[in-house]
Design brief:
five-stranded antiparallel beta sheet; 4 helices; 207 residues; 2 domains; three-stranded antiparallel beta sheet; alpha+beta
């Protein structure tokens, strides 16, 4: 082999090969981070705690609804809900207060895990499980909750797929579009005037 051919083969070709290998390693790393189960945002509640917290959630919401009916100013005070109360109510709504429910996905039964919610300062963070390509993927999203024109609003501050951090600027447009498509599901009951996260609690105010 001549010097020139050796130089060409050991120069240009290996460089392209190294770049290809680096690209492959990065792609595999991103994939592994995306499908890896992240650390939970909150610990799971035992069944008895879920039941108690779900009852507490419903009691507070009922009190708020009653304040709209009787018109007593003293009874129209805001209610404060904890992350455990919200998570318990969502778990029971999914029929998974004690055991995960199952759903049909592509003809096979898939276990549905209830979303986990945590509140910190003025931020709500939720972790959800979803099936993508037959793989269970965990999505973690955090942001600010609010209300506008009778509908709940959400402005994300953090987005993760598995352990992979995704810039909010890349997903916010798609997320807001999805929220608009499901706008009716975000409609607040007539007796709720505003809601926000404050000091690690969900504050719900009557009209």
């Amino acid at each position: 082999m001549s010097v020139s051919s050796y130089s060409e083969s050991s120069g240009k070709f290996p460089l392209r090969r190294v770049i290809s290998l680096i690209t492959l390693v990065v792609a595999i790393t991103v994939l592994l981070l995306a499908i890896k189960k992240p650390a939970p945002v909150a610990s799971k509640q035992p069944p008895e705690a879920i039941t108690a917290n779900a009852v507490s959630f419903q009691t507070k919401i009922d009190q708020l609804a009653q304040s709209q009916t009787n018109g007593n100013p003293d009874s129209r005070a805001e209610v404060r809900l904890t992350a455990d109360e919200i998570s318990a109510a969502m778990a029971q709504a999914n029929g998974s207060g004690e055991h995960p429910s199952t759903a049909q996905v592509s003809g096979t039964q898939v276990s549905e895990e209830p979303p986990v919610i945590t509140l910190n300062g003025d931020v709500v963070k939720g972790q959800f499980a979803s099936e993508i390509g037959g793989k269970r993927v965990y999505v973690t999203v955090a942001g600010h909750l609010g209300a506008k024109d009778g509908y709940a609003t959400f402005n994300p501050t953090e987005f993760k797929v598995g352990d992979l951090i995704v810039p909010v600027s890349l997903v916010n447009s798609a997320l807001q579009k999805k929220l608009m498509e499901q706008r009716e599901q975000l409609k607040l009951p007539d007796y709720i005037g505003d809601l926000k996260i404050e000091n690690g609690e969900l504050v719900v105010k009557p009209k």
